[in-house]
Specification:
- The structure holds two protein chains of two kinds.
- Chain A is α/β, with parallel strands linked by helices.
- Chain A folds into three domains: 86 residues, Beta-grasp domain (Ubiquitin-like (UB roll)); 94 residues, Translation factors (Elongation Factor Tu (Ef-tu), domain 3); 132 residues, Rossmann fold.
- Chain A is built from seven helices and 19 strands.
- Chain A has a six-stranded antiparallel sheet, covered by helices on one side. A six-stranded parallel sheet of chain A has the order 17-16-15-14-18-19, with helices on both faces. Chain A has a five-stranded mixed sheet with strand order 2-1-7-3-5.
- Chain A is globular, with a radius of gyration of 22 Å.
- By secondary structure, chain B is mainly alpha-helical.
- Chain B has a single domain, classed as Ribonucleotide Reductase, subunit A.
- Chain B is built from 22 helices and four strands.
- The radius of gyration of chain B is 24 Å and the shape is globular.
- The termini of chain B are far apart.
- In chain B, 44% of the residues are buried.
- Classes of the chains: A alpha/beta, B mainly alpha.
Amino acid sequence: MSHALTIEPIGETISVADGQTILDACLRAGVYLPHACGHGLCGTCKVDVVDGEVDHADASGFALMDFERNEGKTLACTARLLSDVTIEADIDEEPDQQRIAVRDFTGTVIALEDLTHDVKGVRLALSGDTIDFQAGQYVNLAFPGVDGSRPFSIANPPDKNGHIDLQIRLVPGGAGTGYVHRTLKIGDKLSFTGPYGRFFVRVSRGGPLLFLAGGTGVSSPRAMILDLLANGYTAPISLVHGVRSQADLYGDGEFSALAERHANFRYVPALSAEPDDSDWRGERGFVHEVAERLFGGLFEGQTAYLCGPPPMIEASVNALMRGRLFEKHIFTERFLTAKDGVDKPKSPLFKKI
Amino acid sequence: MSGAKKLGLKQRYAHMTRGLDWETTYQPMDKVFPYDRFEGIKIKDWSAWEDPFRLTMDTYWKFQAEKERKLYAVLDSFAQNNGQTGVSDGRYINVLKLFLTGISPEEYQAHRGFAFAGRHLRGVGPRVAAQMQSLDELRHVQTQIHTISHYNKYFDGLSEFRHMHDRVWYLSVPKSFFDDARTAGPFEFMIAIGFAFEYLLTNLLFVPFMSGAAYNGDMSTVTFGFSAQSDESRHMTLGIEVIKFLLEQHPDNLPIVQKWVDKWFWRGHRVLGLVAMMMDYMLPKKVMSWKEAWEIYFTEAGGSLFTDLARYGLKVPKYADVATAEAEHISHQNWAIFYQYTHAAGFHTWMPDAEHLDWLSAKYPDTFDKYYRPRWELWAKLEKEGKRFYNNALPQLCQCCQIPMGYTEPGDPTTIAFRSSTYKDQKYHFCSDGCKDIFDNEPDKFVQAWLPVHQIFQGNCGGATVPDVLAWYRMNVGADNMDYVGSPDEALWNEWHAEKLRKAV
C-alpha cells in the first residue's frame, strides 16, 4: 500500500510505496532534498514531519536525537511512511510557482503537421475541458499498445488552455514517437496526465532572460516566451535555438515576427551541421558556441533557461559557468529518451545542473 | 485576518539570524578584519554565502549535548566492561596509538584554526559556520583525550602524547601540516582544512580508522565515529561551500585557489601515507587495502568532484597522477621506515606473517612480490637469527612534508627520489616534485620548518646520542618503542587471553 507525501514549502504531493524512503521517493519525483550519507548517519537530510506518522527505521541515535524525534523531526533517507504524511523540507521556495494539481485528460487530435522531416506538431483538443499549467511544464502521454508513458513539453502558452500543442521528434527505434509519426491521425484520442515539472520562468526575479534550446527543446521556451511577451515582460529576452541544418529548423517564421514586434526579444537560430557552401546567412555552431559569441562569453546578470538533450545542456552549463553565470541563475529541462542511461556519478557540488 | 503565510525553514532561519552583523563606524572594517585581503582573494558579495545547515546556536548546543551524553555513556560502559580486552588482537592498539598521538592533537589545531577563520572572515555566514566547526573540533579532541585516558591505563605509548607531539620525528609530519595551515591566511586555511582535508581527503582518513575499529571489535572508537559523523557531514558541506563561494565571487580567485588545491592535496596525500601503512600493515583484521581505498575515495569520488569543479575552470590537483601511482608503494615504504626506526617510535612494529604476506600479494599483485616481499622475508630471517635490523643513522628529512626521504622515483620503485632547491645560498631537500613545488612557491615560510633530525644535529633535542634524544622525547624505552613481540603490551594481552581461556574451560 502506498501513502501520499506532501512536501512543503513547495506543496507538491507524491506517492510513496511501502518500504520506500522519503528521500528515495522525493528524488525519483524530481524533488531535490539535501542529503549526504544516505543511510541515517549524518543528518544532512533532516526534515520536519508536520502531519502524519513515520517510522524512523535505521536513523542513528547520533544523527537524529531523542529531542528531535520529540520535536517531530526525521531523516528522509531512512524514514518510511506509516500514514499519509506532510513534511517540511529545506527546499527553496519558489514565489513564481503555481500549485496545480495533476489531472488525467483525454485529448482529441485536431491538427497534425510536419514541422520538419522528423518533427510532428500535434494539437490535442480537450473538448470542453481546460488544462491549467505554467509555461514550460510538460505532460505524460500514453499511446495505445506502448508500455508506459512519454513526457512532452507543452508548446503553447497557458492562456490558450483548451488544447495542448506538442512538438514530437521521431526517436530512431522509439516506440512512442514512432506511433506518433506512423500511426496517429486526426480524430484519434490520446490520454495524458499533467502538468508536471518545475521548469517555469522565475518572473519575480526580473532581469534579462536567456533561453537556450536544442531541437524540440524549443517547445517549452516557445510557451514561456509567448507568455512573457503577452504579459508585457520588458527586460531583454534572448532565444538561441540550435538544430543541425536548415532542414531541421522550424518555428523561425513565428519567432522572427515576434522579434520584429518586440524590441526586447532577440531570436537567433543556430545550425551545427549546415553545409559550408549553403545559402545560410545566420549563425553556425552549437547553441553554447553561438551564445558565447553573442554575449562575448560573459553571462553575468542573465537568468538562463536550458531545454534540450543532455549533451547540449551539459555544454551550455559549462559555457555559462565559464561566463560567470552560476547554478542559482541556471534552470534546466533535460530531454531524455528511453535510451538515455543512468547519470554518471555526481559530486555533491551541484544540486540541479 | 488569517492568510499570513507560514514562513519556510530558510526564511525562518534568515529572520532569526539577520542583522547579527554590522558595519563598524568608529574603526574602519579593514582594521577590524585585517587578514582577509592580503591573500589576494576578492569577495564582491559576502551575502551570497549560502549556509547549508541553518543551525542556530541554540539547536547546536541541544544537539551536541545529547550527543555527548550518549557517547560518554558508551565510553563508560566500554570501560566498565573492559572493552579493551575484546579487540581482535593486542596489535590493534597500535592503530589507536597512531591515531590518538598523530591525529587527535590536530583536532585541537583545527579547533584553533577555525576559531581564527571564524574571527577573521568578514562575512557573517562563513564566520558562524567556522565557529561551529571550531567547537566541533574542540569536542572531538576532548572525546579522544578521554579515550587516551582509558587506553593509557593498560597500554604504553600514550602517556606523553602532548609532550611527544612537539618533539617526536614522525609526529612532526601531521603537526607541520597543521602548523602550515594555521599560519596561512583565513582563506587558505579554509581551503586547506575545510576543503582539501575535510572534504577531498576525509574519507581516506575517517573511513579506514572507523571501519578498522568496527572490524577489530573496538566499539568505543566506532561509537565516536558515529557521533562525529553528523559533524563531519557539516564540515564536508562547509568545505564544498567554501570552494564554490571563492570561485563564484571573482575570476581572479581561480589561480589562487588552484595553487592552494594543488598544495593541500599533495600535503594531505603525504600525511595520509600514515593511514596507508595502518590499513595495510597494522590492522589485525583488514578492511581493504590502501590501494582499494584510494581508488574508491579518491579516483572515483574525487574524479566526479573534479569533473564538476572543471566547470569553474579548476583542474585536478597537480601530481594527482603521481599520488595514484604511489598508492602501489606508499604503505610498504612507510612501514619499512617505521620498522627500521622502531627504537624511536611510540608504537610497536612487526613483520607480517605468512597469511598477511599472501594478503598483500593478492592486493598488490603487480608490485608486492617483486619489491617488498623479499625485503620482509629477509628482515624476518634476520630477526630469527637474532640480528633484527635497526637503522642507526638519522634519516634525511624532506623540508616540506618532514617524512624521511625513503620514497622512490615515480615509475622506478628501486631508486630513492631526491629533489633539491637552493634558496639564499642554502640547499634544501625534498622527497618529491610535489614537495619541492610547495617549497619553491613559499620558500620564506618553509626555510623556517622545525625538522626533527636537523634539530637533533643542532643539539636542540637533549643530546647527541639516541638515548639522550629518547629521554628528551620522554619515551619509556623498552615499553613505548620497539617490536610488539616481547613488549609489555604483548605480555598483558597474552595474560588477558590466557585468562579468557581459563574461564572458558
